[in-house]
Amino acid sequence: MKALIIEKNSMNILLERFLEEYRVFGPTKPGSDSTFDEIKSIEQLHLDYISTVLPPKKFFLPPNETLFSFNIKNGKFTTKEIRPDEKILILGIHPCDVHALLKLDKFFSGDFNDLYYQNRRKNSAIIALNCVEPSEHSFCRSLGTGPFLNEGYDILLTDVGTNYLIEIGTSTGKRLVKGLNLTNASEEDFHEKERRLKLMEKKFKKSMNISWLPKIARENLDHDIWFDLGERGGVAGSFPCLSCGSCTFVCPTCYCYEVYDAVDLSLKSGTRNRELDSCQLLEYAEVALGGNFRRDRKDRIHHWMLCKFGAAAGGKNSSCVGCGRCIRVCPSKIDITEVAKALRRG
Amino acid sequence: MINAYLPNLAIIKKIIRETHNTNTYMLEFFDKQLQTSFSCTPGQFMMYSVFGAGESAISLSDINNNDITATIRNVGSVTNTILNMKEGDSIGIRGPYGTGWPLDKAKGKNVLIIAGGMGIAPLRGAITHIKNQRNNFGHLEIIYGARTPGDMIFKYEFEKWRQIKNSRLDLTADTIPANTPFECKAGLVTSCFPSMKTQHKNAIVLLCGPEIMMRYAAKCLETIGFKDDQIYLSLERRMKCGIGKCGHCQIGLKYVCKDGPVFNYTDIKPFIHPL
Amino acid sequence: MVKKPKIAIFKFTGCAGCQLELLHLEDIFLDLLELFDINYWVMVKRDNDEKEWDISLVEGGISTPKEIEEIKQIRKKTKFLVAFGDCAIGGCIPSIRNWIPQMEAENQVYPDTSTIHSMKVLGIGEYVKVDAILKGCPPHRETIVELLKSALLKIRPRLKQHPVCVECKFRDNACLITSKKMACMGPVTSAGCGAICPSLGRECEGCFGPMSNPNASALASIFKDIGFSEDDIKRKFRKYAGMSSEFQKEALHEWKK
Q1: Do residue C123 and residue C201 come from a single domain?
Q2: What is the ipTM of this complex?
Q3: Does B75 lie at the interface with C, CB-CB under 8 angstroms?
Q4: Residue C1: what pLDDT?
């Protein structure tokens, strides 16, 4: 499909086109602590952001959502399904986060479909943005999830100087740029993209060697590092884990959730909801009568690391994409890349 | 497409009192078509919804007839609410989920069933299955232990189980009051092993109970020649979805709800706490 | 019509803020009165019934011998006793005075201490059996309603035991410890507030008390690493829950060893 270019200060043309069909969300602050929020005018948009606190996962698997409502009348229950049907467009999503969504797509389908996630994905458009400036914590290059993208987008933008290069990935993408009178991209624009990719690849400060990593992690179930992470500290300058769960909530591939009922004051009706949960929390593996299958802090951080290395039940669908959010957010300075290195050292 | 999270309404047809805090429920879907198409294997579980209290995973405690049988002990919000329900009340259920006992693999073999406490509930279906297809299996041995004889469930089944051809039933309890109406030894399930008839050769072990009991039992079986891959056990974990999405029941590379709850011991041995 | 459960509300050593929070439920207060009878509440009622109660919400810690007798009486007449707020759970802010000698504290406040009969401020759980606790200074209104509803439905209330960080992340906040080097108590403090302070750029002060199984010593080391003095850190852990076993070492200053 042919590619186009748009001048950076003409981005409002694209935005206005998107707003005709979708609620648009994009990064609203520069820097590393940006957030994806609703964009109604071009001034709110900060495509120069480096990373966000929460990944775009929040639009598809929200921190809290209602699954269905229920009602009791004359001793008989009725349930009423709630299905999300809003059309949303995520603008400026980085390659690592797109890869995370592709993983979650696989996770939430299969033998059992999660209709809530799937409906939201079906009703969404992804306008990705290649990374030209890595965050100091990211290591997507080692995992093949960035810094440039080649799948999973409707439209892909690349900063090529004063313009954005526009590449089309799907028919939705094609429809969205149709009739906008944009200039066709030239050979030079693609050369510039190549050049920037090469430049970008030299800028990474962190890396993680993932060859055989799931196997190495599984074979080191008794490694000292798990106790160090949980109780003693000192893994490349880290403090002991606080079990605050922040790493899991900012992780774009962490999917765990809790299900609970909320009854209103009539005590006759209510809703069943789900809320994101974290394997780092004590209550996560608790069963009736106070039994707990992951009581120790070291067992909890161990489980999470294994999950991110692709050595837990989620397999590759919940493994790391190298966005670096967990490293940035951790008050204890626990660094997943250092854990991987230490395990490889044995 | 079907929404996997939405429970189907069922009616409580019959309640059997088992102990002071445990009942067995026979349920039937309101939707007749759902009920006729319902099929399950012993060892599978269902998700039970009490609207307001939430959802709990509870194993099917028999496979007979055309109803859904669950044996429920009062241990939390959902189970407590269910125990206060009467015949004719309605409840939300979905399932069945998970793998059952490997009854195909057990064909032609001697079957050793070891259960502790509520652990006999998911195994009753397996016993029923073996009883119904008696010629397909070898010797059947059931060892069932509980804290006290009063805590034992399915007491009305014991005599029927004893009458199964080519079988043996051993009951044991930690403490035994004087007026116990049936034959019961004192001690843990492992104390029944010396008098056990099943040898490791051509045998399969189905194990269910508190995790610590299963670990001890598996270890003792190892010392008398049983191999890990002959042992199957059913695990308990926190479950919120039953369909491998909520993450809570992970053990190693598996979800207990989807890949289990019945596992071969070799698959999960490294991931359950060592003794 | 089923008989409505009877509720009583009491106050000991505290600021009455928890009761006020209950009163702030004004938009649903009439709905609550459909479900409960409030039989004893000196703060809002002229006529108070002292017979027996199904649920007692007790605010405030115990700080005098007279209060010990009173809480024991309340226990006797109550089916379900709730420690309502941090003071009733573990003394909360008034318990800061426990760290200095009793006489010194009294002399700082009263010109004449001859009529003062006070002792260390402790939670009501030190003297009587408590059936449920509602964390917070004051507890969040939603947790109050959740507890009351659960009592009616006879199910376990969904009260959060995990840290404030969970709610803080749900609100898309950057971490104040890592991004602004602030001494935020969020990682060891029980959630339930909705992360109000961090969402407004203020560090968590820890007003919901310790979460389940907090790693307080690790947080104390982190505070030291980002430049806080040992005295500052000690005061942080003494402020709301210095009497709790979870924060004991850090409040005592023993975490360094």
Answers
A1: no
A2: 0.92
A3: no
A4: 53
List CB contacts of C131: < 8 A, sequence separation 6 or more: C80, C81, C82
Mean pLDDT of chain C: 93
Q: Same domain for C197 and C109?
A: no
Residue C159, domain member (yes or no): no
Using an 8 Å CB-CB cutoff, list chain B residues near C155: 52-53, 77-78, 80-81
Q: Chains touching chain C at 3 or more Cβ pairs under 8 angstroms?
A: A, B
Q: How far is C132 from chain B (nearest CA, A)?
A: 15
pTM over 0.95: no
For residues C85 and C149, membership in a common domain is answered with yes
- Other Cβ atoms closer than 10 A to A62: 18
Q: Tell me: the pLDDT tens digits for B210-250? A: 988 999 999 999 999 999 999 999 999 999 999 999 999 99
Give pLDDT, residue C230. 93
**Architecture of the domain spanning B8-97:** Beta Barrel (2.40)
Q: Which residues 36-65 on chain A approach chain C with CB closer than 8 angstroms?
A: 52-54, 58, 63-64
Pair of tokens at residue C58? 């007790």
A72 Cβ under 8 Å from any chain C Cβ = no
* Domain ranges in chain B with CATH number 2.40.30.10: 8-97
* C208/C132 same-domain check: no
Indicate the domain borders of chain A.
Answer: 4-65+80-201, 213-255+279-345
Predicted pLDDT at B275 = 63
Taking CA–CA distances from A331, the nearest residue in chain C reads: C178
> With a cut of 50, which residues of chain A have pLDDT below it?
none
Query: Per residue in A193-236, pLDDT tens?
Result: 999 999 999 999 999 999 999 999 888 888 999 999 999 999 99
Find the domain containing C243 and state its range.
Answer: 164-252
Residue C32 falls inside a structural domain: yes
Where does a domain end: C130, C153, C176? C153
Q: What residues of chain B lie within 8 A of the CB of A80, using their CB?
A: none
Length of chain C: 257
**Same domain, residue pair C132 and C23:** yes
Phi-psi region of A31 (alpha: psi -120 to 50; beta: other; left: phi over 0): left
d(CA C208, CA C133): 11
Domain with CATH 3.40.50.80 in chain B: 110-271
Q: Quote the minimal CA–CA distance from A265 to chain C in Å.
A: 7
- In chain A, what residues touch B248 (CB-CB under 8 Å)? 256, 258, 277, 284-285
Q: Is C126 found in the same domain as C187? A: no
CA–CA distance, B241 with A313 (Å, rounded to integer) = 15
Q: Are A50 and A92 in contact (CB under 8 A)?
A: no
Identity of the amino acid at B178? A
- Of C153, C181, C196, the residue that ends a domain is C153
Residue type, C184: C
Number of structural domains in chain C:
2
Least confident span in A159-163, B198-202, C221-225: B198-202
| SS3 state at B224 | coil
CATH number of B110-271: 3.40.50.80
Any chain C CB within 8 A of the CB of A174? no
Q: Kindly indicate the confidence band of residue C65, based on its pLDDT and cuts at 50, 70 and 90.
A: very high
CB contact under 8 A, B52 and C153: yes
CB A316 within 8 A of CB C162: no
What is the pLDDT at residue A245?
Answer: 95
Q: Is B133 exposed, middle or buried (0-12, 13-18, 19+ CB in 10 A)?
A: exposed
